[in-house]
Amino acid sequence: MLNTLDHIELSQVVEIVSVDHSPISSKLTEMGLVSGQLITTLFRAPFGDPIAIELNGTVLSLRLEEAQFIEVKA
Fold this sequence. Notes:
Layout: E1 2-4, E2 13-19, H1 25-30, E3 38-44, E4 51-55, E5 58-62, H2 64-67, E6 70-73
Antiparallel strand pairs: 1-6, 2-3, 2-6, 3-4, 4-5
C-alpha cells in the first residue's frame, strides 16, 4: 500500500517509492531520500511536526510539509 511519509506510524520501516517534483525535491534527493531506500520513523515532536527518520544509520529531521513529497510503501 502506498502512502506519503507524513502519514507513517512511529517505528514503521518503509521503502521510498518516489520523491515528487517540488521546490525541495533536489534537496531531499541530496539528503539520500531516493527510491529503494529503507527508512524508519523514530520520533514526532509534541505537536507532530517535525518528524525524525533514520536512513542508512543517519537521523534526519523533516517537516511534515517536506515529508508529504516522499511516497513510501510498507
